[in-house]
Every structure is written in structure tokens, then in C-alpha cells.
């Protein structure tokens, strides 16, 4: 996965915002290594010159709560010289938080408060992961 990204790549989704290439490579490494039971399926992969899309589904246990998650994602890509330079994932944060967090996600998953809290925690976890592995 890491080799797919150009050195100037960016990544964003509902949780991880505006990552640069080094951060996105570390993010995938962190998620894959911490996702002991992670299983990913993908389909509807389409490319057309410099752009592409795919749909993927991640099945895993959210480590912070021990709850099972099935996250359905629509990805869009921009390619340059055969590498990803822009990757954006879209998924339903409310559905994700309801599964990953249980009752707090059900009650607050629609709020910017919870989305921002989860995003800040993820950014801090990524920062700590990078510091420990570089």
C-alpha cells in the first residue's frame, strides 16, 4: 500500500484530515498492524486516465472499545506517473461511530463535537506512532 503513494500524496477522510505522504504511509501501517482481525474487501474499481474510484469494506474490531465494525467506504483517487497523489475516502461517520463506540456513537455520532474529538485522538495516535517508529 505504501508504495502506491507518490512522495507528494495527500489523504483525507472523516477522521484523518489532510495527511501528507509520510503520514498516510504511517497511517496505513498503524491501522494494519493494530487491526489484528482486519479484513478488507474491494470492488467497483474504476480508473480513467488520471483519476479513479473504488469501493471497499473494512471488517475489524475497533481497538479502543473492542466493538466490531463494518465500514463501507467510497474512495476517489488522483494519479500522477502511476502513483496516487490524492486519495479521499468517504464513509458514513454516524454509522461508523455507532458501531465503533456503541451508545455514545449512537447518541452523538451525528455531532461535530464527536467527529472532532475522534479526529483529534486519531491525529495524536498517528503522531505517537510516527514518533515511535522513526
| CATH class group | Alpha Beta
The number of distinct helices, counting runs of at least 4 residues, comes to: 4
Strand content: 35-45%
Radius of gyration: 15 Å
**Proportion of residues in helical segments:** 25-40%
Q: How would you state the average pLDDT, rounded?
A: 95
Order of helices and strands: EEHEEEEHHH
The second-level CATH architecture is Roll
Distance between the termini: 18 Å
The coarse silhouette is globular
Main sheet: strand order: 2-1-6-5-4-3
Keywords: Isomerase
Protein name: Ketosteroid isomerase
Domain SnoaL-like: 1-87
Organism: Pedobacter cryoconitis
Summarize the structure.
This protein has 134 residues and is an alpha+beta fold. It has helices at residues 21-34, 93-101, 103-108, 112-133, and strands spanning 5-12, 19-20, 39-48, 51-62, 67-80, 83-90. InterPro entries: NTF2-like_dom_sf (IPR032710), SnoaL-like (IPR037401).
Task: Lay out the secondary structure.
Elements: E1 5-12, E2 19-20, H1 21-34, E3 39-48, E4 51-62, E5 67-80, E6 83-90, H2 93-101, H3 103-108, H4 112-133
Parallel strand pairs: 1-6
Antiparallel strand pairs: 1-2, 3-4, 4-5, 5-6
Helix pairs in contact: 1-4
Description:
It comes from Pedobacter cryoconitis. Keywords: Isomerase. InterPro entries: NTF2-like_dom_sf, SnoaL-like. This is Ketosteroid isomerase. There is one protein chain. The chain has 134 residues and is an alpha+beta fold. It has a single domain, classed as Nuclear Transport Factor 2, Chain: A, CATH 3.10.450.50. The chain is 38% helix and 40% strand. It has 4 helices and 6 strands. The protein has a 6-stranded mixed sheet. Helix 1 crosses helix 4. The two termini are 18 Å apart.
Amino acid at each position: 500500500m505504501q508504495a502506491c503513494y507518490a512522495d507528494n500524496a495527500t489523504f483525507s477522510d472523516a477522521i484523518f484530515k489532510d495527511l501528507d505522504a509520510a503520514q498516510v504511509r504511517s497511517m496505513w501501517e498503524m491501522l494494519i498492524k493494530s487491526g489484528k482481525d482486519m479484513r478488507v474487501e474491494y470492488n467497483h474499481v474504476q480508473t480513467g486516465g488520471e483519476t479513479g474510484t473504488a469501493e471497499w469494506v473494512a471488517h475489524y474490531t475497533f481497538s479502543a472499545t473492542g466493538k466490531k465494525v463494518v465500514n463501507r467506504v467510497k474512495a476517489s483517487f488522483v494519479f500522477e506517473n502511476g502513483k496516487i497523489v490524492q486519495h479521499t475516502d468517504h464513509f458514513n461517520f454516524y454509522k461508523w461511530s455507532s458501531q465503533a463506540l456503541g451508545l455514545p456513537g449512537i447518541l452523538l455520532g451525528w455531532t461535530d463535537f464527536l467527529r472532532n474529538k475522534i479526529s483529534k485522538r486519531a491525529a495524536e495516535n498517528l503522531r505517537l506512532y510516527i514518533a515511535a517508529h522513526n
